[in-house]
Amino acid sequence: MGNIEELVLSKINSKKVVIFSKSFCPFCSKAKQAFKDHIGSIITPDDYEVMELEDHPDAEKILDYLLDFTGSRTVPRVFINGVCIGGGDETVRLNCAGDLRRQLEM
């Protein structure tokens, strides 16, 4: 699992926001939508990455590692500043409360 751990950690440590996603997932779409207005205003496109897993050859291993790392294997797994904030519902709740913006401004 060493290479998978390195891959995941390098992603979440290299960007302000990283979303592990599947493009067909409605919860992933909700999470990505929550960030849409913040890209370009609070965060730059370079600070934001979505890793779509459905075509990734190690998708299952990545999900297994995310389970160990975050306690959940479901997508989306959303990270801000290296910390998992949860999935789609949690991201939308934070956005509606204004807390997503505050976290992005840190």
Describe this structure in words.
- The chain has five helices and four strands.
- The chain has one domain: Glutaredoxin, CATH 3.40.30.10.
- With 106 residues, it is α+β, with helices and mostly antiparallel strands.
- Helix 2 (26-36) runs parallel beside helix 4 (88-97).
- The radius of gyration is 13 Å and the shape is globular.
- The chain has helices spanning 2-14, 26-36, 59-70, 88-97, 99-105, and strands at 17-21, 48-52, 77-80, 83-86.
- 28% of the residues are buried.
Topology, please?
Elements: H1 2-14, E1 17-21, H2 26-36, E2 48-52, H3 59-70, E3 77-80, E4 83-86, H4 88-97, H5 99-105
Parallel strand pairs: 1-2
Antiparallel strand pairs: 1-3, 3-4
Stretches where pLDDT is under 50 for at least 5 consecutive residues are: none
Content-based structural category: alpha+beta
How many helices in DSSP terms?
Answer: 5
Please tally the β strands and state the result. 4
Largest sheet: 4 strands, mixed
> Helical percent range?
40-55%
Protein name: Glutaredoxin-C4
Domain Glutaredoxin: 17-85
Organism: Octopus sinensis
GO molecular function: glutathione disulfide oxidoreductase activity
